[in-house]
Amino acid sequence: MKSGLSGQTSLTRSEMDPSLVPSLPGAISAPRLAPYLRRYQGNTAMAIRLYMWNVEMSAAFWGPLCLFEVTLRNALHDAMRANRIDDWWNLKAVNLESREDRRIEAALDKLAFAGNVAPTPDDVVAATSLGLWVGLTGIGAARHPLYDYETNLWPTISSAFPNRGSWGRRQVHNKLNRVRVLRNRIAHHEPIFLQPHAQQRDLVIESIALLDADVAHFVASTHRIDDVLTSKQDSVANGVCRF
Prior knowledge:
- 61% of the residues lie in helices and 0% in strands.
- The chain has 243 residues and is an all-alpha fold.
- It starts with 23 loop residues before the first helix and ends in a 5-residue tail after the last helix.
């Protein structure tokens, strides 16, 4: 099938070995390619193939991570606005530590820069970072009368995690924060090829299950992470690239 680019030859997906694209190492850049070259003792062809497999694995994780992030922020938003107002962050009775305040301000600034100077609460929630919502499950300022989240926020937001069993705030936060770290590595196109992918898969699904068992079951039934794991040898040894 023709690509539509002048001078390009016709290639099928299985024929397009990324190591045969001469400009790809420069497009990726030497610093970003370095960990992959170290993995294969300077073999550029295998490094390029591993890099592209890393992209494929990142893409496979992205769908589950998207559902995790959206489910988390909506569940926590619903818990925080219950018996309050939709823009609960503006209430004097809701005491957020400076880090969470800054994340809400960053969302408002992003909306204003895009021309939305009077955003609805839904607009603000959609513009917030994952860090805000994971941060709400953190400790805040420990033992502070206003900003200790254990005593001032957790009793409210714990309802967002109906399937947490006997877990408390700390256990929930630790699991969510591990997902946040993985999500940020993927969002910034960092290497994840050495990550324990099966454990990370389970981490994401288990984190969703804390919030909604049905969504977790859907993700567990439809993700393609295992397929990408199975394809690694073919991708690196033979240059089969799939997106």
